[in-house]
């Protein structure tokens, strides 16, 4: 099942497509964007195309939305990855020149709304590097609670890394939205 199109005041979130690879190569090849990613910067457009193709495939256990600002050009993506019943992991990436514009917050919040609304999830969690202040700040601004630290959880291009786990429950999200 493809990811349904979601909209916000500024954004259109639509199913990630293989043809988004060209727009996403500058994102996935940017060392500053990829420093906290589980893999290093992409060396070629072909590498990005293969990676995007995997994330754009249906039936892989996740929904992946391209973040667009109305011109249909992918700026990044938001993904919901299957976990236990009624639980999904959220992940996101955004072009560096759009950092600080609240686009990531807007896109992630809209996917959270979809997860707790249409998908009837009870919990959404995220996994981030302890030294990634941008991601930690985004999660905390959205109401996620730090639940734990997994030591030496990931082997990445920058070495073995710990992971912080953040969680958000449906009731917490509903309360956060009414503030």
From TrEMBL:
Entry keyword annotation includes Nucleotidyltransferase: no
Pfam family, one: Acetyltransf_3
Keywords assigned: Transferase
Molecular function (Gene Ontology), one example: acyltransferase activity, transferring groups other than amino-acyl groups
SUPFAM superfamilies per record: Acyl-CoA N-acyltransferases (Nat) (SSF55729)
Cross-referenced PROSITE patterns: GNAT
Coiled coil: none
Sequence ranges assigned to domain N-acetyltransferase in this UniProt record: 11-171
Lineage: superkingdom: Bacteria
Protein name: N-acetyltransferase GCN5
Biological classification of the source: Bacteria, Pseudomonadati, Pseudomonadota, Alphaproteobacteria, Sphingomonadales
């Amino acid at each position: 099942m493809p990811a349904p199109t979601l909209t916000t005041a500024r954004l259109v979130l639509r199913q990630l497509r293989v043809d988004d690879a060209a727009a996403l190569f500058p994102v996935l090849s940017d060392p500053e964007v990829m420093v906290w990613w589980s893999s290093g910067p992409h060396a070629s457009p072909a590498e990005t195309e293969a990676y995007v193709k995997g994330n754009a495939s249906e039936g892989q256990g996740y929904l992946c939305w391209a973040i667009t600002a109305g011109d249909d050009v992918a700026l990044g993506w938001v993904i919901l990855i299957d976990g236990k019943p009624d639980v999904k992991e959220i992940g996101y990436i955004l072009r560096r020149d759009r950092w600080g514009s609240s686009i990531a917050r807007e896109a992630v919040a809209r996917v959270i709304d979809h997860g707790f609304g249409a998908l009837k999830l009870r919990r959404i969690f995220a996994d981030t590097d302890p030294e990634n202040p941008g991601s930690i700040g985004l999660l905390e601004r959205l109401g996620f609670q730090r639940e734990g630290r997994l030591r030496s959880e990931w082997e990445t291009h920058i070495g073995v890394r710990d992971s912080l786990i953040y969680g958000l429950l449906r009731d917490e999200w509903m309360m956060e939205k009414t503030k």
